[in-house]
Amino acid sequence: MDISTVLGGILGCVLGGLVLAAYRLGVFYQLIHKTETKSPRHGGESVAEVLRAHGVKFVFTLVGGHISPILVACEKLGIRIVDTRHEATAVFAADAVARLSGTIGVAAVTAGPGLTNTVTAVKNAQMAESPLLLIGGAAATLLQGRGALQDIDQMKAIAAAQSGTPGPVFVEFPIDTLYPFHLVEKEFAVKNPPKGLMGKVVAWYLHNHLKNLFAGAWEARAVSPLPVHVPMATDSQIQQCVELVSRAKKPVILLGSQATLPPTPVDEIRKALESLGIPCFLGGMARGMLGRDSPLHIRQNRRDALKEADLVLLAGTVCDFRLSYGRVLSRRSKIIAVNRDAGQLTKNSDMFWKPTVAIQGDAGSFLLSLSRGLKGHRCPEDWPRSLKDGDRTKENSNREKAAEKTERHLNPLQVLHRADALMAEDSIIVADGGDFVGSAAYIMRPRGPLRWLDPGAFGTLGVGGGFALGAKLCRPDSEVWIVYGDGSLGYSVAEFDTFTRHKTPVIALVGNDACWSQISREQVPILGSNVACGLAFTDYHVVADGYGGKGHLIGREDEGRLDDIIRQAQRESREGTATLLNVLIGKTNFRDGSISV
C-alpha cells in the first residue's frame, strides 16, 4: 500500500468525522431552517396552538416561572387558565374534565416539587383510565439533535393518552425552549469566557446550540389531532356473544367506568341497555347511566344476584378487589368479559374465575353492537322484576335505619336521604371520602349518565376540590355537589379560595363525625385502640367563610330545618357563592363489615 492511499484513507476518515460532527451539531439543519434571532415569539405559543387545535378549553395549573410562557400564550388564544392551591388539585380537575367532556384534560405544573406534588393524582388518573396531558417545566439543558421545539411532539402525546386504554401522559419542556431567543441568548452568554482558543470554542458551541434550538421554530406546521386508536370487538366475537345472551334466562350486566369513554355517546349506550332489558349493576362513572329510577338498575344485593345469574357480562368492569378478585362470580355462569386493556380483561382469571369469551375492545361500542344483534330479543321480564323487588326491600330497610336516632348529632343516612331528595335533576355528585361517602354510594342516585365522579380503583382521598372544579367548569349550569368525609375535606378545603376566585359555586356536604371512621370501624374491634383515628368537630364552615364562600353548621338542633338549610345552600350556589354544609353526624352500624384495605 503506497503513502498516497494511506493519506487518502486518513483524509477520508477526517472528512467523514467532520461531516458527522457537523450533522450532530445541527450545522446542516441550520442551513435548511432559518433561526429568527429577532423574533419575539416563544415556545409557549407553539404549545398553546396545539392545545387549541385539540379543543382544549381549560388548563389547570399552579403557576411557576418554568411554565409562564405556556400559560400566557394559552390565555391569549382563549384557553381559560384556572389556577389552584395545590398541583394535585390541578391534575384532579383535568381528570374530571377528561371524564365529563370526552376530550383530553390538561394540567401544567412547574419543575421539581411542582411535578412531584402531582404523583398521586397522576396515578389516580392512570387507574381510572382518564386521558390526561400533564405539562411540566424543567431546568434549561443543552439538548442534542434539532432542539426541543421540534423534538417534542405534543400531538403524539395527546393521541397516546386517548388511544387503547386511556391514561395520563407527561411532556416536559426545558425552560430554554419556552422563552424568546433574545432572553435565552442573554442567559446562555458566558459571563467570563476563558481566553484563547478554548474560550472561542465554548462561545461558538453555546451560540451554535442556541441557534440550533430555535432553527425552524416558527415554520408552519400541522397541529391537527392525530387519529386515536380504539380496539373493537370483531363481528365473530359479537355473534358469539349474541348467541350466548339469547339463550340466557338470568343474565346480568356489570357496567364499569370504561363504558363511558369515547367514541360511543353515553345516551346511545343507555338506549342499548334499555333495549336489551338486562338488569344492570353500575359502578364508577357508569353510575347514573340508566337514570334515577330505572327498573333495570339494580343497586342492592349484588352478591346474591351474581350467584343466581346464568350469564354475566363484565362491560369495562375488572375482577379486582371490587369484585373480590372474581370470587363473587359463579363457576356455573357463562362470563363475557370486555375491556380495552388486555391485563385488566383477564385479571385474576388464573385463580378465581374463567371467562367464556374474553374480548379486548371498547365496552360501549360492544354494547351497541350486541343490542343491534339482539334486536327484538329481551331478557325474561320476571328476572329483573325479582331483583328490583329485592332492591326495594333492602332500600326500605335502609330508610328504617335512617329514621333511627343516633346517640349524638344527626343520623348520616337521614342527611344523605334528604340531600338526595332535594338536589336538582341536573346535579353532578363528586364522592371524596370513606365511611360517609361509602354510605352515599348506596343512598344517593345520580340523575343521568356522567353525573357521578369518584376516584376510581386507586381510591384516592382528596379528589373532591379538583373534581368539583372541573365538573363545574364543564357544566356551569348544573348543581355540583361534593360529598366529603371530614377527613378527606382536609386535603382540598383550601380550594374554596379557587371556587371563589374562579366563580365556580359548588356545594360541599361534609359528614363530620370527628373520626377516620372507615378505619376506626375495623381498628377498634380488632386491635382495641382508636389511635390516629380521632379528629375534632372542627368549624369547617368558618374555613369556607374565610375563603370567600358561605358555611353552615348543622347539628341535631337543626334537624327540623335540615331541608330549609339545604335549599338555602342551593340558592346561594345559584347566586354565585360556593357553600359548605358542616353536618355533625353520629355513628350507625350501616357499614359494619365494610373493608378498608
TrEMBL record:
Residues 381-406 are annotated as: Disordered. One of its GO terms (biological process) is isoleucine biosynthetic process. PROSITE patterns: TPP_ENZYMES. It comes from the Eukaryota. It catalyses: 2-hydroxyoctadecanoyl-CoA = heptadecanal + formyl-CoA; (2R)-hydroxyhexadecanoyl-CoA = pentadecanal + formyl-CoA. GO terms for molecular function: acetolactate synthase activity; flavin adenine dinucleotide binding; magnesium ion binding; thiamine pyrophosphate binding. Keywords: Metal-binding, Thiamine pyrophosphate. GO terms for cellular component: acetolactate synthase complex. Residues 432-574 form the Thiamine pyrophosphate enzyme TPP-binding domain. It holds the Pfam family TPP_enzyme_C. Residues 238-368 form the Thiamine pyrophosphate enzyme central domain. Its cofactor is thiamine diphosphate; Mg(2+). Residues 42-156 form the Thiamine pyrophosphate enzyme N-terminal TPP-binding domain. The keyword Metal-binding applies. PANTHER family: 2-HYDROXYACYL-COA LYASE 2, THIAMINE PYROPHOSPHATE ENZYMES. Belongs to the TPP enzyme family. This is 2-hydroxyacyl-CoA lyase 2.
